UniProtKB/TrEMBL annotation:
The keyword Lipid metabolism applies. Residues 179-222, 473-514 are annotated as: Disordered. It comes from Tuber magnatum (white Piedmont truffle). GO terms for molecular function: 1-alkyl-2-acetylglycerophosphocholine esterase activity. One of its GO terms (biological process) is lipid catabolic process. This is Putative phospholipase.
Amino acid sequence: MSFLSRLNLIPQLPTYPGPYDVGSFELEIPASSLLEPASKRSPPDTKVETVQFRVFYPAEKTDSANTTGWFGGTATKPIRWLPEPYQREYLSGYARFMGVSSGFAEIVSYLPRALYYISLPATANAQLLGGKLPGFRFPTMVFSHGLGGTRLAYSHICGSIASYGVIVVAPEHRDGSGPVSFVNAPARKTTHSSEGKSESGEPSINESSTKASMKDTNGRVQVDHRAYPHQVSEETENGRNRQLEIRLWELNLIYSALSKIDTGKVPKDTIMSGDEGETKEGTMGPEAKNLLSTFKGKLDVKDPGKLIWAGHSFGAATMIQFLKSIHYPPPTKPSIKPLFAPDASLPPNTFDTLPLGKQITATSPLLLLDLWCLPLLGKRTSHLFKQPLPQISNNPNLVLVIMSEQFFHWKENLRGVKRILSPNPGRKRGTLHHEIFEKWDEEDTGETGDTGDTAIHEETLKHFHPDNDLLSPSISPTVEFSSTPDQGGQIIPPTAAPSPTPERQHGHEHREAKNREPRFYYVQKSAHLSQSDFGILFPVVVRHAENPQRILDLNVRATIQWLREAGYNDRLAETEHLEELVNGLRLNCDDKDKEIKNKEGDWRIWEEGDTGVEGWERIDLEETDIPEVKA
């Protein structure tokens, strides 16, 4: 099929930009193998019996003589972009996610077979890069996907970051936010499952699906996409809360899994993709065990604040809720049950593992791509929404936020993002534009959070949708949307008129203020899906975006430079000068200039004006929201 790829019959992902080869595998681990005996926690949904994630990592170079096939492609088993062995089901799920009826989606899934052969430019189950000094640990990142995402939907940005020396873990959330997912039942006998609604009144992930709640002959459970209107209602709020509960639960378990792997332990009944030596009883084969053993002592999970957290859209909101849930104690008299509270036994506090509560600190790096605020505006999330990110008072530069131009022009969402990045998100702004963020139920007394103000709260939140955005002079009155915005498809903000590069001050006070803020940028002529693989695989579908590869390159290079400055510089591969990969430098500065010559890395990515990068713009916070960094 590589011959057909050369004929451009199959969409292709570009090679990764960094100097290292990239290896990849995926794991599925039963939750029962990660829960400690002391844990009394039960999963938010009993069908979520396992956690699944794909790992991208810097790998040893593979001998080209052993990897070249008949038509120039790889002779090793390729990593397909549509997850195997359920490619038809994932394609059908994507069709339904885009608004196609279920019946027609099933027909569509049989037609474009060429899409089945889209492959990643990574080597399946390659050996982890060696040759490092004793005690060396690779920077490690956990990346959460957005609506319609999977463990492979952001493969290019994850693989690109890995190609510079970072181990990137990409979960597949089984919360109904993806197009579809499959849970492989653990080898043990399955426990009872609950149908319908949970005790909180919020829906289970498969409440509306008949086939999703059934296990096939191999014990697999299908989790279908669950659509909620983007206009907020009680149904939507409960549904997103339920999804967040599952996502936070999964992240907790995944951290426990990484901690175990780092100590050289393989959780019981772990399944690895491409494990040809797996026994009939489900025991991992020797080659797979050997590969996992090379990760012992190599994951940066043992020291506080070292694990990097990242996400796109709903995934970015997930990471904010997760970090705040760990960092801030629950209210002494909570009127509303929190979505998540950390389990003190996951992982246990021993000499070779670090509890999650000690891992997440004010020094934890946080990467937010096209943050979607809506899931954080419900009654059960409002308490933490009003708390600042832990990093803001310590070192705001540890937070990098990259928006698409499409989301940058969605002003209501942008106001929410700015509040989240401020030192006091709960501060009353007192304007009509901020009313949606200030209608919290502060006088709740009931355990369920029901109050007489609920109707007012919901009526206010109904306005949080692109077609209700209060237009500003920079936004065209023409607005485009998904053909079925109320069925949970893409979030499509207003189409913005091209805006000129804003003029900025460049004095000493301006630079000092900028250094007290999170890194906050957007890429011109980019769309919401530009940070995923969809932008580069299907550019015709992702409208309002130009040069999709350059958009991804800018995101990656900014991330790598941000990580360098966050303390990982000596563990990342050298990079080319930014202008060698990303064309569009506004001015070729004199290399003899000492100030420029002495700078290291991709420093131009933070510059403005003539020395900045074309199409890469900094976003200002509100003047009153520039945090005062503690000495």
